[in-house]
Amino acid sequence: MTDLKPKPASALEQAHTVFIMYPRLKELDQEICRCQQLSRVAGEPQCIALEGSTGAGKTTLIQQYAAGFPRRETRLGTRIPVFYLETPSPATVKTMASVMLERLGDPAAHIGTIGSLNSRLIKLLQACEVELVILDDFHHLIDTETDRVLAKVSDWLKVLIKETGIPFLVVGIEGKVERILQANAQLSRLFAARETLAPFAWRPEQPTTIQAFHTFVSTLESCVGKPLTTTVPRTELLYRLYYCTDGVVGNVMNLLRYAVKLTEEQSQITLELPLLRQAFEKRLAKHMRGKVNPFSWSADERFMAPA
Q1: Rounded Cα–Cα distance for residues 295 and 298 (Å)
Q2: CA 269 to chain centre
Q3: Quick one: which of 21, 141, 245, 265 has the most CB atoms within 10 Å?
Q4: Dihedral of alpha carbons 273, 274, 277, 283, sign
Q5: Sign of the four-CA dihedral 208, 212, 215, 221
Q6: 278-301 as b/e, with b when 16 or more CB fall inside 10 Å?
Q7: Over the stretch 237-277, which tens digit does the pLDDT of each residue have?
């Protein structure tokens, strides 16, 4: 008789699918939810802007949020409570409208004048009962060649928000989202809520910062079932891990996923120093230029970051 029970996920599979809702992410998740709910109650869009450095986890957070409100088909048509899309590059009014129409399911998304595209877009957003639009990579509203904010697109977005009454969450690189909003006073006014997702910090004078990083790493270890080596004092090991990743979640995940892969290849149980050293060289050394490999220090040495 065939065993139809699903096989338990390997440590590597878990490392690639794990999502840790640590306290700061939970705060942001709740704030996004509040804006969505307040817009429904207040009758006017309560927009929110989220920015952060590359790898901070912005896209993962908002994709997880959108996944909680899946698209569904009903006898009255398609319902899309939370509509997520990446801002096209280069961004123009027509490409923005066309891409949104295409994602909403319009078969003629790229056909028609800008006026007709806008009209169909507004009707379709309302027909699909969209409660929140998430625009990822919002920094694409800055022209890469001229470094200027695309005023026509930001004006178009302002009008779209006002005419649909639907709140928008715009997400992008730290500093660039704020710059786009500041360049358009009317658009800026619509985004009263401004949030930043920063990397983890390591401040010895603030033990809570070290504890937060410790909790995140410990949770990650539990999720993948591969603990870090115990041959190095815990705080010392965490400091080395923080130094080589700058506390950026994407860097931590990149390093540990590769290390987990090495443990499976070598049939090891824990993430030992040689594996972490190799993982840094293969996955972070070129990205984190100027960083020495902190896992090259022996277990009984204290790592001191070069000046």
Answers
A1: 7
A2: 30
A3: 141
A4: negative
A5: negative
A6: ebbeebbeeebeebebbbebeeee
A7: 999 999 999 999 999 999 999 999 999 999 888 999 999 99
